Fold each of these.
Amino acid sequence: TCPPLVDGQPETADNGAWVPKTTQVLQDGSIQFGDKETGITIPPNTIDRIIMCSGYDYEFPFLNDDSNLDVQFPDGERRVKPLYRQLWHAHHPNLAFVGLPHSILPFPFFELQAEAVCATWTAASVLPSVEDRLNAAQQDSVSCGGVPNGRIQDTHYLGNAQWDYCRDLAKTAGIYDADMEGYISVNKEIYDAANGLRKGGFPGGPDTYRSFMFDRDFVNHEYSLVEPAEVRETSIA
């Protein structure tokens, strides 16, 4: 979130300015950031290029109409359907899409997806009926992922919804127990701590949060934050 303007001017660093959300590009070439009362208007001929960061679409060139699988990834929707639990094709559960969700802790998440897929493909675990899978897929496609009142483009956004999703995957894989709960819980704590270190920094500025490390105790399900040397030296000074 952009900090409040000071005397009508945005916070700057080097050659960057942290401005409010773009609200309007006017015919004379000026650009309005934020509302007219509390925002700022950049006059014409001061901005050379506008880069539209609109996200990306999913594409699977090896799947097409000839595949006869009824898998869809429409342009502009940034999602794949119909999927059961954002992983298995609802009609054809022997086709799975590992790694679609975003805003997650990636590799532990993908590993649990793979465990769940392996369990169903080896008959160690059984998925619900086709009807139930299709109903769940339809519900998931209109619930907009982990964003309350979100857009269809947020279908694969999970955020805080990822932790219960991971628990469900572990249960499907038959590996959910006290140790797995500890593993998932500490993952969440580290994820939240890293997210807290990342937020508030100037966009495009130094990614100092990447220098922090987490020392994890897998036995006691605990972790400690290890500050980088330059941060410790600054604190001491």
Note: Residues 178-198 form the longest helix (21 residues).
Amino acid sequence: LITPGIASAETVGKDEDCNDSTCLGVWDGILANCAPMTPGAGCVSSQDDTTQDVFLEPWDYAEAVDLDWKVQKKRLLPAILIVSKIHGDEVQVLFQQERYVKVMFVDMKTLEKSIGEFYFTPNDSTVQYRVSSISPNTSVLSLKNKERCELIRKELGYLKLPVIRTRTANDFSPGEWALAKVMGII
């Protein structure tokens, strides 16, 4: 049921027949979580805070000269190409539609491949992203993907958007736990 006047979340670049966390694309406004893998195995995401190994903060372009997402999207590919060239990577654009861009990174030293997804969130200045290896035996590639994302962010001049991650009682000191409960964080 769609209520008149209320926009539903976007689904872009997703295979209609795919219904699990391995799906690429934006599904109801969200990129897929990193697929369950061995720790440190080649995936980083700004929306998957289930483990510290894969989570990186979303990017914020609120301090950019032009806040139009279309202008910022036009800046994304040149930034990706600059960072990739410096590090000896090749990049291929696989898909672009509206606020979503999907690319393939190829590390020309190791020939390892990763898929990068970037999504300009509607009605704010946030870029969500997910970069995941599609090559087997990629234990060190997650560090490469983390570094790659951070270098792209810096090339764009974006800020990191602080996020309170999904946390359990074990993640808090007793005082923090009590305060978090009072503030409604948990």
Note: Residues 1-8 have pLDDT under 50 and may be disordered.
